Protein 1
Amino acid sequence: MTRFASVAVVLAIAVSSSTPAGAWEPETTHAGLAEQAALASRLHKALITIGFSGGLFDLLTIPPADAPALMSALKLLSPSHGAVPDSRGRQVALGWLAAGAALADVPASSGVNHFFDPLTGKGWQSPSSGLTDGVRKILGRSALPDSGMPAPDWVVAKANPFNLEQFQSQYAKAVTAATPGERSRHMASALIAAGAMLHVLGDLGAPSRVRSDFAAHLDHLGGGPDDLGSRFERIAALAYGRLGVPVPSRVVTRKHLRDYFTAKDGSGLADEISTKYFSENTVPRPTKVDDKPDLVRAKPVSPGRLNLMVAGHEEGATLRDRDGICMARYKLEHEMLSFWIDDDCVLDQLAVILPEVASYETGLLDFLFRGELTIAVTDSVVVTGKDLGQGSVEVVVEDERGVRTPLKAIQAQAGELGRVSAPASGTRVLAVFRGVDANGEPIVAAGALQLAR
């Protein structure tokens, strides 16, 4: 039996705990997507530039005593999945990014903020009362959230502990903080926030999350009465795990953060997935054989001609897109056509969707770490950069012990961002810009120059 063919069997016996509205499985699918995005991005180079010589594999430490809540959350993860630091709070940079991707659903209530329907502009909306009452009875819960913040808004929301501001604040401190230990802690924190943002974006690769199909996240998955969640997302975890997540098919570039999620030209991940794929409860409605398929939404558009001869067989027929990817199955019985998505159809879709999600996540990671400063030193330290707007520049000098001392913080000027007096000694000069880029997007840009001994 092949890995893919056995998914249905494994689902029937799988034992895990899922929370309604949960995401791609955090410790497998999300961690794998974040790792693939990191390996394909410029993050390795960016880390080396600011002094983390091992890049993605540089050991970074968050002392457990400094972050007890974080360490408690990390203990909920399995050490076998590569995102749990050792007893000293130490692991490689790539591991901290994966940890952020796994922690974005902690607390569990955060998961309701990982939905966005481009058609309505809304996020999670609680399904029908009859369905949610049943879920409450099973789980012994007083209520399910009535609504959630749309995913594109959540990544910049103040209520989100892993938002854009948190990432940029920690990233800037990872350049300017005095000691290597402080910089290590700040860089690990920045990577956690970046990983969590990748998670929120990646969730929009699941069709049900971008087609207001909230009931699809309350499926009984077979691991016990409280094992509820998305069958589509569970299949992804079982079929690919963490290490099997596909590499990006390309690198998506955008000028604005929100455009990775949704864009006016329909090029955001949510836009693309919502118009190309059906979800469990948004397949065409049962339709009389002589009528066109009754679509729940205008897109995707099903072909005008269906193979009714094959549809009359016991296994039914397959509705495919122009690239041959399974969109749904359909069957003809008693002059009525019915549509559904089975596990093999899901696997067909995942083989295309996961590389595309990885492509968007790679692009977002490059977007977060975009911006390079150029430093020249003569009698002065001159800092320049491209495609930057208003902001401030902080310049620091590093000595032989690895300690960095501020030289000066100045308001950035057009063209030449800043100029300060050259240090009398030191091994390296670094600069960090905080402000907006040429498109008005918040940015932290960094640069470094090794000084002649």
Protein 2
Amino acid sequence: MDSSAHDEFSRASLEALDEAFFRMRAVRDDNGHIADFEYQYCNRTALCVLGRSAEQVFGRGLLDLYPSHATNGLFDAYVRVMETGEPLRYEFVFDEGGLAGEFEIMVSRFADGFILVGHDITERKRDARQLATLAEQLQGALTSRVAIEQAKGYLAAKFDMDTTTAFHVIRRYARDHNQRIHDVAEAIVAGQLDLADKKDGRK
């Protein structure tokens, strides 16, 4: 395979990726310090993530298109990759220039620049947060139920009543005192609340 065919094969392979792929070149000042990074190549997926055409990106500076990189730590992180040769794996939230979401990137030094492979993890992060919230709610409901069952058993044993009546006593006290039934149940189990004068109530 000659060099031109190899280059075409490599480009076609990158275009087939579902991951966003960027090749960036360091732009240096007169003292040799990195002042910016220039977009040399972005595959189809990368351009889709950016919401821009190749003509709007190729040859442009990173800080030109997304100046917040200079203040959010990303530019400095890319410079460290260049200086140390240590790859970077990073998750971050970004919202600028029409590009918004949560992203995961892998950055490695390449020639006098770096290559970046990344993807939008907004949906995955949102689903994870929803699952965490649901799990927390379920755990809270379970904890509350356990406390109520313990309080019912405690009152039933102490005052020789059935658990249904004990629950009515707890619920009535919570309603009359504008408290959560879970809080009343916990106070009973902890010995902080005596319902001796309420035990004959039904509802």
